[in-house]
Design brief:
54% helix, three-stranded antiparallel β-sheet, 5% strand, globular, 6 strands, single chain
């Protein structure tokens, strides 16, 4: 006897809860959990007590679940997320398929941000902060103690700017892009000036310079290095802070809240704050005139050498290579560049590691008279654009998909009540 031909799949074919559970390979109660999370839609059965489900929707969810399960096992249990923003491979990285270093060295930070958000280049674009947002952000930042870290200032400025935006809950693409184009310059404008002047117009890199360096008139080469550093750091795939942003966006947090989630993660010493550690190491080498005793002290204390190596680049970090090339055009950066080279060569006796972008940032900040925390500020301002790009992408996915399952390893229930 021949097998019966399957019924045609059309938009009206409905499945019972039992059929949907079997197709998904889950219990019936899990099917309703999918409904509560917004992953499935249901319809009450006429005259009955159960629900029915669109067959095509259930099949699509089953396919997604299979792909994600396969992705997890293939990557050794790590979370895999579909994204069309940044690709890292073979010691290079790409923004929407275009070499990121080429973009960063040929276009301004604002232009690269626009490319990341929209896939379109807008030559000459600049970001402008609304006066109302700047005023409320500055008032909030001014209440913080002097020892507050850069990310403390940026988090407070972000939250304050959100309160001045009644449209922050609009998650449409146009609204989120509008938020991005005003939030980033607002964050820069809210930072206190490093010297007597505070520039609030012109390219973002020039405005940021007045918040980081007390030197009044920066030369063109230094400004270009800062602008390129911002563009190089716009995004770097699913770094820890970016994953936090996507989790927030998956829960449909507005763009300000998503950026705040990223800022909460980026100040870790293994992420955005790493450049500050490299800055201090570099200054110690400059003070002593030799990397050997400084490296010896770090290793004796059991600390890893900051500014060296990167888990995604077996060879050279392309961001560091591009930034070093620009710094070589700045005469006053020569001592810091030589000290950085000394660090790499000295450490190579112990472990052959290449310089990463944190060491390049340390050369930039130390040679431009900036404090050790300046690299963290540059990193956070730059990465805000990438976070917005990822939040926009996540808003287009099903809600709450960034919800991994815990692997419970506690006592087997039921346990007696504690006395």
């Amino acid at each position: 006897m021949r097998d019966q031909e399957p019924a045609p799949r059309d938009a009206e074919r409905r499945l019972s809860t039992k059929e949907a559970a079997e197709l998904l390979g889950v219990k019936p109660e899990t099917v309703y959990a999918y409904v509560s999370r917004g992953q499935l839609s249901s319809r009450r059965v006429t005259g009955g007590r159960g629900s029915s489900f669109d067959a095509r929707e259930v099949e699509a969810l089953a396919r997604r679940n299979r792909r994600e399960a396969a992705g997890s096992s293939a990557s050794g249990g790590e979370l895999s997320v579909r994204t069309g923003i940044t690709l890292i491979e073979s010691d290079r990285y790409y923004y929407r398929g275009v070499d990121a270093v080429d973009l960063a060295t040929r276009h301004s930070y604002e232009e690269v941000a626009e490319w990341l958000w929209t896939g379109r280049m807008r030559p000459g674009t600049t970001f402008t902060a609304p006066a109302a947002s700047v005023a409320v952000a500055r008032r909030a930042v001014d209440t913080l103690p002097e020892h507050a870290a850069p990310t403390d200032l940026l988090r407070v400025a972000t939250s304050a700017a959100a309160t001045a935006d009644p449209l922050r809950y609009d998650l449409s693409e146009d609204a989120v892009l509008g938020t991005a184009r005003t939030l980033i310059p607002t964050l820069v404008a809210a930072l206190p000036p490093a010297g007597r002047d505070r520039r609030d117009e012109g390219p973002l890199a020039h405005r940021l310079w007045t918040r980081l360096s007390p030197r009044k008139d920066p030369d063109e080469a230094s400004l270009r290095a800062l602008d390129t550093a911002l563009a190089l750091l716009v995004d770097h795939d699913l770094a820890a802070s970016t994953l936090a942003v996507r989790v927030a966006a998956s829960a449909r947090a507005h763009a300000y809240a998503a950026v705040s989630a990223g800022l909460g993660v980026i100040e870790g010493p293994l992420h955005g704050a790493a450049s500050g550690l490299a800055h201090r190491l570099l200054v110690d080498v400059l003070d002593q005139g030799d990397a050997a005793p400084v490296i010896a002290d770090e290793l004796r204390a059991g600390r890893r050498i900051p500014g060296l190596g990167h888990r995604l680049y077996p060879g050279e970090d392309p961001r560091a290579r591009a930034l070093f090339a620009l710094l070589e055009q700045i005469p006053r950066a020569e001592p810091a560049l030589l000290a950085a080279r000394d660090i790499v060569e000295t450490t190579a006796r112990h472990a052959p590691l290449h310089a990463n972008v944190d060491l390049a940032l340390a050369v930039l900040t130390s040679s431009c008279g900036m404090p050790p925390t300046a690299g963290e500020t540059i990193f956070a301002v730059a990465r805000t654009a990438g976070w917005i790009a990822h939040a926009l992408e996540e808003y287009g996915e099903r809600p709450l998909r960034m919800r991994p399952s815990g692997l419970y390893a506690g006592p087997k229930p039921p346990q007696p009540l504690p006395e």
